[in-house]
Amino acid sequence: MAQFGQYTAPVYRRQRIVRARPSLKHLAHLKRLLPYAFTYRSWIILGITGILASRLCEAQVPMFMRSAIDSLALGDPDILLPVMGILGVVLVRSVISIFSSRLLRRVAIATSYDIRKRYFSHVQTMGSAFFNQFGTGDVMARSSGDIAMVRSVVAYGWVQVLTFAFSILVGLCYMLFLSPKLTLLVLIPTPLVAYLGITMSRRLFPLVREQRQAMDDVTSFTSENLNGIRTVQAMAQEKQEIERFEDISTRYASLIYRTAKYRAKMNLVMPFVTISSTLIILGYGGQQVLTGQIGVGTFVAFFAYMHMVTGPIGSLGGWLSSFTSAAAATQRLFEVLDYQPEIQSNPVAHAPTKMIGEIAFKHFTYRYPGAGEDVVSDISLSIAAGEVVAFLGRIGCGKSTVLKSLVRFNDPQPGTLFIDNVDIRGYPLEQLRSQIALIPQDPFLFSLSIRDNLTYDNPERDQPPIDTAAQLAELVEAIEEFPDGMGTIVGERGITLSGGQKQRATLARGLIRDAAVLAMDDCFSSVDTRTEERILRRLKSIRKGRTTLLISHRVSTARHADRIFVMDRGRIVESGNHAELMAHNGYYANLEAVQSNQDQDRKRKAALLRDLDIEVEVVSG
Ligand SMILES: Nc1ncnc2c1ncn2[C@@H]1O[C@H](COP(=O)(O)OP(=O)(O)OP(=O)(O)O)[C@@H](O)[C@H]1O
Ligand SMILES: [Mg+2]
Known about the structure:
The chain is α/β, with parallel strands linked by helices. Helices cover 62% and strands 10% of the residues.
């Protein structure tokens, strides 16, 4: 068991390793990066040319050394020319190499920038099925860790590979020129090195993938914990959370440890193999020098060239391992990039650009992907433009599902949901979502000022509509109490709004859009009935002629609607206006009775408390 400070690496139960045939197939994932790098082909060509030139310069050094040593061996002390030559080529090589490396690093930064941008835009179009599969933490881990890994390989990996390849090529040419026989002998261990490198790299690939996956788990867990930190603390679950984190984190650490060990092994094995080439030269080459077949200068130069060749081969393990990591990262990135958004925008030509707001559900049925049964079944109803319609019903009966379908958060079956007589699947998605303002059930505000939150869809808005929306949502009083008014930052980086304030800010953000269709999903649950009534009355007069849909659990909200649909287990069970439904004496009428009784009870209780207060005052006075 290995010990690193607090962390104790558990003994790893080894999986039986299937003897892998050497293959570099997994590196093929890297090919997917080529189109991105190809955008910068002129920089790449320039960079590669630079590297080739710098290698050629470097290859001149042993030749100058050879002539200097041979001069000295012949008793000629004038070696100024070779020395100047060495200094010259080293200088030129350094300058070229700095510039070309910098150029290729820029390509890497630009490439990873492009991938990150594409990744982010792609994720923006994803629906719930995608997030069910990947999870936010996973998506985040891929966008940071995996892109960084890809960048490091594009930046340094390619430079290394090219440098190595050119070194080997140039070195071999010079070696063959100096002594073809010795060259062939030196190359004997090379196939073994290649075999070992490739086999080890192939085994490393699944390890790296697993390690990245474990990293996702750590990120997901941390992000979920931080999002729910108040709940964790409220339920006194900190200790359990720390224990759960320890499990996940230990697994990640063990995988890092295991991968690092494997990498170290790769880096260790390679130089051992290449050292055999050195021994061959010393033995066989040395003898040739002694017998006078080659000069000392040639012998030394040959040594230098051999290092040019075996050096890169020795570090084959190192760069194969970083390429393997990058291949795993690339595969993970493209898993996301290849994911087709489940909701596609395929607009038809006759979709009107401006909606009137006539809505028709025709035998509308919906089942969530992977679910066992329909959550909404066979709903048929028409809503005229300008109507105010309420949906009411028990928890989980499918109200939000119906409303979400209007903006295609849930994609309806073709031919079941129409707006202005056009199937909603025929509208461009952006147009559909910009002309139907859906105010979701869970209020969400960005960590921005209240003003920026209200004008989120269009920051260019003038002050008057912002004020109107704030007034309509009865938010003005609350805003006036905030330290910076409309400029007050809310959310994580600012003040925390109460549930009701958050709900009304979300409401104002929807109202400001002045959309053809307004759909409010239970927007008044944290607002008291009197405020709610005022808001609805004003809304009704402001939205005259435009369609408004609302969901509520309260009869006091629903009664303002022109028509009320009562839902139960995904079906419409009652419909009509308030009076009609009361006369019908069904679910709605019962609910009204219960809720008004509760109201009366509440009123009685309030009055009682008021009386008590007075009593207390009288007694104490
Ligand atoms: N993304 C989803 N995947 C699978 N099932 C879902 C999903 N969203 C909702 N459901 C299920 O669909 C049913 C209807 O949900 P919906 O949110 O439409 O209910 P609701 O009437 O709005 O309830 P509430 O009054 O609590 O808001 C529920 O049983 C719920 O569990
Ligand atoms: Mg709901």
